[in-house]
Amino acid sequence: MKPIAKLKETFRQLRQRHLDPDSLQFRLTLEISLLSILGLSSVAAWTSWKMQQLLITTHTQKVEYIANRFPRDVELYSDMLPVAEGLQKTIDNVSVPGLSIWFKSTDGTMTLAKSSEVTDELMSSGEMPLKPQVYRVGDRYKILYRGDVAVKNKPLGKVYMAQDITAEQHQLIAAIQGLTAVCILATLATILAIAMRIRRSLQPLQEMSRMAGAISAADLNNSQLQLNNAPTEVKELAQTFNMMLSRLGDAWEQQRQFIGNISHELRTPLTVVSGYLQSLLRRSNNLNDYQREALATAGAEADRTIKLLQDLLDLARADSGYTRYHLAPVLLNDLVSEVADLTGEFGDRTVRVAAKVNVEAMVDRDRLKQVLINLLDNAIKYSEAAQPIELIVEQINKQAIIRVRDRGIGIPLQDLGRIFDRFYRVDEDRARTTGGYGLGLAISKTLVEGMGGKIMVRSTLGEGSEFSIVFPK
Predict the structure, then answer these.
(1) How many CB atoms lie within 10 A of CB 32?
(2) Which of 18, 165, 362, 387 has the most CB atoms lying inside 10 A of its own CB?
(3) Where in the chain is the domain with CATH 1.10.287.130?
(4) Confidence (pLDDT) at 466
(5) Which residues, in sequence order, are bridge partners of residue 90?
(6) Distance, CA of 222 to CA of 214 (rounded, Å)
(7) How do 351-355 and 328-331 pair as beta strands?
């Protein structure tokens, strides 16, 4: 079943890619195809109508020629024979193969003469309003004609003629069917050629989209779209896009430099301020409770600001490529146990470690320890004190995995895709009380990816969250 499922998935992807009603390729193909179908159909319909009219005109002229002779011959024979015999004699003289003739009295109630192949069905067809067109009588095709006959200016009756064109009509129908088949094949070939041409014409745009999607913030200054074989309009678009990338790269570099410089410049005086505040709290015995509380608050805020500046410096170094990773084989079981013990020393939260086998990975021990502390800090902040936190180490398909699992408030589904963004906080009010700035997870993601791993999250609102760190073994 797997090959069948894989084939179905391939067809589904092709259908989504090429039959997307909102895509430019689909719209252009559909519109041009409809115009082609309309044009070829119009040509085919006009050609068929013209061929039919030519057939009618040719045989109508022949019948009209015979009809014009008919009154003269009747008048000629009426001088020598009775009327009925003169009519029959005239019909016999003017009759040609495939032409049926009959004559009715003026009131139309009596057939005075007819050729041998005239049938009752044919005569009943002659009562309908006759127009220059093809009539089907039984299994035959006829062109019908009706004209008045007068002898010595005295109305004698009406002559009816039916020219059999069955063979010609069958040939015409076969020709029309062939023309239809050719038009259908030409339409399909045109649609296929149009689709392939449009697809080829849009390939530079697809290549441009693919290249643009692969560009990251770190590559802005070194990324340029190269479309040598693209149309002029697409080349101009690519040049404009390259200029925009250059401007974004310059702005991004300036932003990184600014953040790094301002963080470095502010951290030193704030560290001095924090040191003086802590020293003042330790050495001053003549402070009242209010003064001590104010100094303690100022010291705590200074420490929080120093931590924020350190986080910004870490991100700036990572963005600039200045972060160095000392990768070495590390037994993850020992590292996880060390972080769990460290958490237990500075708090009363229960951290459970679960590991069935020893798992080793190539990581930077200090950086991974920093990531685990960040994740544990989040788990502690967003779960109740009575709920334990789990650290799980396992190996699956030659991958080393560390899971940090809590049973806290969880993360809403709409926020899962953004929790690794910088300065993004799910709950602003709760984050303010816990002291978060929305940088911990961003730093963790940057460090894990810098070591060649990846970090993922699963969460259910009200049940808890699980962060998974995956490294190749």
Answers:
(1) 16
(2) 165
(3) 232-320
(4) 92
(5) none
(6) 12
(7) unpaired
* DSSP string across 366-404: HHHHHHHHHHHHHHHHTS-TTS-EEEEEEEETTEEEEEE
Q: At residue 34, does pLDDT exceed 70?
A: yes
How far is Cα 236 from Cα 341, in angstroms, rounded to an integer?
60
Angle between helical axes of 24-78 and 83-94 (0-180°, round to 10): 130
DSSP 219: G
- Going by C-alpha positions, the residue among 73, 93, 120 that lies closest to residue 111 is 120
| Cα 292 from Cα 296, distance rounded (Å) | 6
DSSP string, 271-307: HHHHHHHHHHHHH--S--HHHHHHHHHHHHHHHHHHH
From CA 467, how far away is CA 457, in angstroms rounded?
Answer: 4
* CATH 3.30.565.10 describes domain 328-472: yes
Tokens 């003289």 sit on residue: 93
**Separation of alpha carbons 163 and 137, rounded Å:** 11
* pLDDT one-digit tens code per residue, 372-387: 988 988 888 888 877 8
Question: Sorting pLDDT into bands at 50, 70 and 90, what band is 428?
Answer: low
Beta bridge partners of 164: 142
Question: pLDDT category, 345, cuts 50, 70, 90?
Answer: low
Residue type, position 10, single letter: T
Weakest mean pLDDT among 101-110, 142-151, 256-265, 417-426 = 256-265
Strands (E) across 214-342 are located at 328-331
Q: For the structural domain made of 232-320, what CATH number should be given?
A: 1.10.287.130
The CATH 3.30.565.10 domain(s) of the chain lie at 328-472
